[in-house]
Recover the amino acids of this structure.
């Protein structure tokens, strides 16, 4: 079942086109990772899905209803921005009371449970907490509203490894138990790789890639190969994204299924042959290189 | 129950599939034993439930487990009949390893002994490596 759906969405700030004709879907119970270069439009996209910004063109629906200025729907959609907001002077307890008033689905019992888990003082002013602790408070309050859709902008920034694991575990429990739908934007690709099942890469306001993570990984491979006799014929048969030569060993990034590549390469009787799946970080770098956003070795 | 190598290049769902296969082949999991539910395993391993579901589906396609609606997934006793693709892959892995073994000077006799020893251990029924 489709939970979040964007159809031909465009967004402009003054004359600057931030998002250009973006369409995609996120299924219910899926964890979707939104990646992209700096300034690609990730935060703008998330804010529109949360119903904070209005798109200039196109349609954004959550559970088939338009989200913008739809308070009933927003009861079930939670957004944690990259800088979580709390009222100045409010303690955690006061913030919780505010949330309980606004959200019908507020779960007080869960609030106490998470209090035990996170161990933060409820009577302390939120603004007095450290950056990481403030983010924990944001998760704490948000998860107690039992959202159907959770939108996170750089969620793990500033959290230590232990807390990060706790938070991830909480999110996964909600996905497993209640089929919560999650959208995460992050630059920490390792983090995304572990937790997401779908990936979209945004660049200059449009998607350059949008796929199931496992499909993505099984469709591109890193190959190390050495041949007894050099032959360009082999390279012509492969769909090569990137090619390097180190001594007599060729390093290739090749698109295609594992079996097909295996068959082609084995027919050339290589002396050395290794085929490795790519990490998400490598996929990101090579895909970005493909649209002219490459890492260059510049001497300064 | 077990740990995944999150630093590995291998996709998590592939790691899950391989792990369960290993358990089933070595009788760590018995025929008709229930696999942990998707929900529980997801929470224990902090892994996306969709990934676990996918791994279970793959195991089912490969004939290692069967699922009963509303009850969960169970180990399939007839799992020992492994697909021909799998056999091909194992054979090619073995070839590679054997070539390496001969190269570093391990003799044919030594390898034969190893084969006998491994065969006994599996045949003896204790799943310890």
């Amino acid at each position: 079942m489709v939970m979040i759906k964007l159809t031909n969405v465009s967004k402009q700030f003054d004359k600057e086109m931030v998002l250009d004709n973006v369409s995609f879907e996120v299924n219910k119970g899926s964890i979707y990772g939104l990646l992209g270069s700096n300034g690609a439009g990730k935060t703008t996209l998330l804010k529109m899905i949360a119903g904070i910004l209005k798109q200039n063109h196109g349609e954004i629906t959550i559970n088939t209803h338009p989200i913008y200025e739809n308070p009933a729907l927003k009861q079930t959609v939670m957004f944690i921005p990259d800088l979580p907001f709390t009222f100045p002077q409010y303690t955690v307890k006061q913030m919780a009371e505010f949330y309980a008033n606004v959200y019908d689905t507020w779960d007080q019992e869960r609030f106490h449970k998470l209090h035990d888990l996170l161990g933060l003082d409820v009577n302390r002013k939120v603004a007095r907490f450290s950056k990481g602790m403030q983010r924990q408070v944001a998760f704490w309050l948000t998860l107690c509203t039992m959202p159907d859709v959770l939108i996170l902008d750089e969620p793990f920034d500033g959290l230590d490894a232990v807390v990060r694991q706790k938070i991830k575990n909480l999110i996964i429990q909600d996905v497993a138990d209640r089929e919560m739908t999650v959208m995460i934007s992050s630059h920490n690709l390792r983090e995304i790789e572990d937790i997401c099942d779908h990936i979209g890469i945004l660049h200059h306001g449009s998607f350059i890639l949008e796929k199931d993570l496992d499909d993505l990984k099984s469709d591109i491979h890193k190959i190390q190969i050495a041949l007894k006799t050099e032959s360009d014929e082999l390279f012509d048969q492969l769909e090569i994204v990137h090619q390097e030569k180190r001594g007599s060993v060729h390093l290739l990034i090749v698109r295609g299924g594992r079996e097909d590549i295996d068959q082609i390469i084995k027919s050339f009787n290589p002396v050395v042959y290794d085929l490795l799946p790519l990490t998400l970080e490598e996929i990101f770098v090579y895909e970005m290189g493909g649209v002219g956003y490459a890492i260059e070795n510049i001497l300064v | 129950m077990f740990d995944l190598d999150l630093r590995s290049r291998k996709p998590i769902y592939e790691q899950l599939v391989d792990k369960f296969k290993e358990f089933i082949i070595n009788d760590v999991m018995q025929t008709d034993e229930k696999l942990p539910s998707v929900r529980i395993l997801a929470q224990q391993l902090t892994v996306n439930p969709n990934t676990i579901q996918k791994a279970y589906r793959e195991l089912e396609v490969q004939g290692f487990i069967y699922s009963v609606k509303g009850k969960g997934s169970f180990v399939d006793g007839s799992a020992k009949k492994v697909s021909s693709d799998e056999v091909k892959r194992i054979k090619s892995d073995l070839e590679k390893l054997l070539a390496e073994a001969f190269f570093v000077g391990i003799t044919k006799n030594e390898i034969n002994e190893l084969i006998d020893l491994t065969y006994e251990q599996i045949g003896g029924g204790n799943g310890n490596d």
Q: What stands out?
A: Chain B touches chain A through 17 residues (CB under 8 Å). The CA atoms of residues 26 and 127 of chain B lie 5 Å apart.
